[in-house]
C-alpha cells in the first residue's frame, strides 16, 4: 500500500461526503463519525447516482436518486444484488489517507 | 557498588517506577529524584476530587517524606533540571549537577495554551498541577469562570468549580462534548447532566480573544461577538509531551521522546516513561499504559526481559452524577456493526461496536455498571458470536427484558401537554382512563384530547396502553421508519412537549434504535426541529436531501438546474440579459420557462454552481428555491395594471406574498398564485394557497393540488384588504409548518385535520397574531439567499482532491 494524503478530516462534513477524482474514477470519502471515514465508488450501482450527494447514516449511504442504500463497509447494496467498490482509507493525525495502489488503474486488478 | 539512577520528574509514572524498583531489588540503585513542582509524587488524577472538595491534598499524596527516607531517595523537589550532558553523564539542576549511570526522563506533558490575544493575562490558567487546582478552589459563590475545552480535563475543572458555587461556562469548539471518547448521543446526555449542575455549555463555539483590564482577565470573546465575562479562565484544550530536555540533549524525538519496547531512548543509558514518550507512533494521556511503562522500565533497569505492549484504553469522567464509560475503538475501520440501546426513562444510552465476532468499542452513559465486563471482552478479544443478540444487556442478562417502545410516553410528567389544540395534559387523560374511559372515543368525549386536529391520537392511544396494559388493543400506527416506534405526529408533539432541541436529543429521548437515524427520519426530524425551535436549532445540511443541501435540483445525469427567483413572475431586461450571459458562460444546454413563471437553466455542472450563482447574484437575482420543501413560487396575472377585467393589484399582492414567505422551510413544497379576477389566469384554484381577487376583496383558498392528485382549493376565508389577505396566508403557512407531517402537502394535511379546525385557528385573532409572530421569528433566520452564502465557499462544491493529475506524471 502507498498511502496518499488527501485532506484534513474536517474538510469532510460529519455525516457527509466529498469526492476525489482518481484514475479509477470518482471516489467518495464518507465521514460517518468524528474519526471515521470510508472510501467507496461515487457512482451508484443502480443508475450511476452521485453517492457523495446522498444522506450518510450509521455506516451507510442512501443514493440521492432512487434511495438505494449501501453498506460502506462492504459496498453491498442493502436488499439488492449489487455492490460498489470500496477502497482502503485511514485517518492519521487528523488527515485522511487513501491507498494510492488501489486507485491507480495501472495496478488495480 | 550501587549504580547511580537519576529520575527527572516525580509524576505518576516515575512514582510507580520507584516502587517497582525498591520492591524488586532495593539495593540496585542509588536514586536521585528531581521535580519541578515543590513536592514529591502525588496522584494527579485525584486533583479533580480535591478541586470539588471531595478529597484533601494530603489524601492524594502517594509517596511521603518517610517513603523517600526509608528507601534512600535523594529528593530535589522544587528544582528544575536544565540540562543533560550525555557525554559526561551529568544532569544539571537549578542547584547544581549530579552524575548518573542510568537516567530516566519522566517529565510528563505540558498543557497546550492557545495563543489567543490575551492568553498571557493574569487569571488565565491551565489545569495540570496543585497550583492550578488551588487557583480554581478560590472560585466560589459569586465568581464567574470560563473553561475553554469540553474534554475530560475541562469538564472535571468545570464541575469542580461549579460544586463550589461558581458560575461556570464551558466553551467547546466541537459539536458535542468529549468528541474523542463519546459519540453525539452520549455527548448530548453528558451535556444535559452538566447543565443540571448549573454549568452553561456552549458548543461549536470558537474563541477569538481574551479581554483584559489592568493586566487581568475580564472576559472571553467568541468569534460571533459574544462576550463571556469571567474572573478566571481555564484552558483545557490538550496536552503536549514535554520533550524539551530530551530534545536539547540530542535524543531522537518526534511528537514525544522516542522509546523502544524496553522504554530505552536512542541513548542506551537513558530511559523515558510517561506522557513525554512516543512509542510506535503513539503518545499517551491516561495513566494505565504509563504504569505498564514504569514496570517495564524497572525491569529493563534491573537487566530483565520485559516489553511494553499498547492495549486498548477505557475512559471515565470523575464527575459525580455523570456516569459515562468509553473504551476501545469506534473509529476508522471496515466491517463494523453497531448495537444501540436507549432507555429514555432512565437517561441510558449504550452503544457497542462489533467487528466480525469481536467487540471492539463501547460507549455508555447513565448506566455503566457493565463497563468493565465489556472492556474485558474488548481487551481479551473474546468471541461474542453466542451472545450477539443479548450482548448489550450485559453479563447479568437472563432473557426477557426488552426495550419498551412505550417508555418515551411512560416517562412524561403528568403536566406534559399531549393535546396541543385543547391544552390537555397527560395527567388529565390518565385520570379519565382510570375513571373508566377505556376507548379512544370515551377519552375524547371526556377530555377533548385528540378531538380537534387529531394528530395526537397516537400518543393518547399509547397512554391508554401504558395505563390499561393488555386490556387495551393499540391499533398499529405506522412509525416514521425502522429507527423508532413513533409516528410523525407523535414525534412532532413530543419535540414540543419535551422541548427537544437537537437531533441527538430526539434520538435519545424518543428511543431511536440506530446511531444517527436514516435517510427517512433524518430530514423529517431536521425539519421538525427547525420549525419548532428556529433560534435554538441549527439546520443540519447533512440531514437534507441533495437538492436542499446543494440548493439546486439534481437531474438524472447528476447535473443541476438553476432557477433564479422572479418575484411574482416579474422580471426585467437587465435580469434577462444576466440570465442569458450566464447560460452562455456556463454552457447551459437547456433554458426553459417553468410552469411557475420562472426561467430554468438546466444541466449546470455541480462545481460550476457557486460561480453561476455569484454571477446571477451580481445582477440582483437570488435563489428561487426551486428545489426546496419551502416556498416555491407565487404565480400572478397582470391584474389591474394591464388587464381590463382586473379587480385588484394581483401582481403587487403576489410580489408582497413572495417577499414575506421566501426562504421559509415547510413540510413539503408550497406554491401560491394570485389571480386578478375569477377568470383566474394564474390558475390560483389548484395551488396550496390560491387567492382570487374580486370587487369586494380577496378570496383565499387553500389545499389545491395539480400533481398526482388534482384538487381544487377550498375557500378558507374571504377578506376585504390586501393586508388581511397577507396575514391569513402567513398564518396558514405557519400553522401548516407547526403541525403537518413531513412530506404532506397542505391538501393532505387538511384532509387529516379538517378545514374547520384550520379556519378556527386563523379566525381567532390572538392565534392568528401568534402564528404570524412565530413565522416572522423564524424568517429572521431563514429569509436569506442561500446562493450568496454558498457562492462564498465554492470549495465545498468541487472535488476534494484530484489524483488523476498525479498519476499522469
Ligand atoms: C486534573 C487531571 C485529571 C486527570 N485524570 C485522569 C484520569 O481520570 N484517568 C487517567 O488515566 N489520567 C488522568 N489524568 C492524566 C494523568 O494524570 C497523566 O497521564 C499522568 O499524570 C502522567 O504521568 P507522568 O508521570 O507522565 O507525568 P506527570 O504526572 O505529569 O509528572 C511529570 C512531572 O515532571 C515534572 N517535570 C517536568 N519537567 C521537569 C524538569 N525539567 N525538571 C524537573 N521536573 C520536571 C513536572 O513538574 C511533573 O511533576 C489526569 C490529569 C490531570 C491533570
Ligand atoms: C384584455 C384582457 C386580458 C389580458 C390583458 C390578459 C392577459 C393574460 C396574460 C398576461 C396571461 C398570462 C398569465 C400568466 O400566466 O402570467 C393570461 C393568461 C390567461 N388568460 Fe388572459 N387576459 C385577458 C383576458 C382574458 C379573458 C377574458 C380570459 C378568459 C375568459 C382569459 C383567460 C386566460 C387564461 C385561462 C389564461 C391562462 C393560460 C395559461 O397560461 O394556460 N384572459 N392572460
Ligand atoms: S385573472 Fe382576470 S385580471 Fe388576471 S389577467 Fe386574467 S382576466 Fe385579467
Ligand atoms: S412531470 Fe414528471 S417528468 Fe416532468 S418534470 Fe415533473 S417529475 Fe419530471
Ligand atoms: S441511481 Fe442510485 S438509486 Fe438509482
Structural description of this entry:
The complex is a heterodimer of chains A (109) and B (809). Helix content of chain A is 0%, strand content 44%. With 109 residues, chain A is an all-beta fold. Chain A has a single domain, classed as Rieske [2Fe-2S] iron-sulphur domain (Rieske Iron-sulfur Protein, 3-layer Sandwich). Chain A has a four-stranded antiparallel β-sheet, with no helix packed on it. In chain A, a hairpin with a 2-residue loop joins β9 and β10. Chain B is of the alpha/beta class and 809 residues long. A five-stranded parallel β-sheet of chain B has the order 3-2-1-7-19, with no helix packed on it. Chain B contains 28 helices and 39 strands. Chains A and B meet through β1, β2, β3, β4 and β5 of A and α18, β39 and α28 of B. β2 (16-22) of chain A pairs parallel with β39 of chain B. Bound molecules: flavin-adenine dinucleotide (FAD), protoporphyrin IX containing FE, iron/sulfur cluster (2 copies) and FE2/S2 (inorganic) cluster. FE2/S2 (inorganic) cluster is lined by residues 44, 46-49, 63, 65-68 of chain A.
Contiguous uncertain segments of 5+ residues of chain B: 398-403
Helix percentage range of chain B: 25-40%
The CATH architecture of chain A comes to: 3-layer Sandwich
Give the beta-strand count of chain B. Answer: 39
Bound molecules: flavin-adenine dinucleotide, protoporphyrin IX containing FE, iron/sulfur cluster, FE2/S2 (inorganic) cluster
| Mean pLDDT over all positions of chain A | 89
Helical segment count of chain A: 0
Provide the β-strand percentage band of chain B. 15-25%
Total individual domains of chain B:
7
CATH topology of chain A: Rieske Iron-sulfur Protein
The major beta sheet of chain A can be summarized as: 4 strands, antiparallel
CATH topology of the largest domain in chain B: FAD/NAD(P)-binding domain
The number of distinct structural domains of chain A comes to 1
User: What general outline of chain A do the C-alpha atoms trace?
Assistant: globular
What is the percentage of strand-forming residues of chain A? 35-45%
**Which structural class is indicated by helix and strand composition of chain B?**
alpha/beta
Instruction: Name the assembly state.
Output: heterodimer
Instruction: Name the overall outline of chain B.
Output: elongated
Looking at CATH, the homologous superfamily of the largest domain in chain B is: FAD/NAD(P)-binding domain
Average pLDDT metric of chain B: 89
Total strand segments of chain A: 10
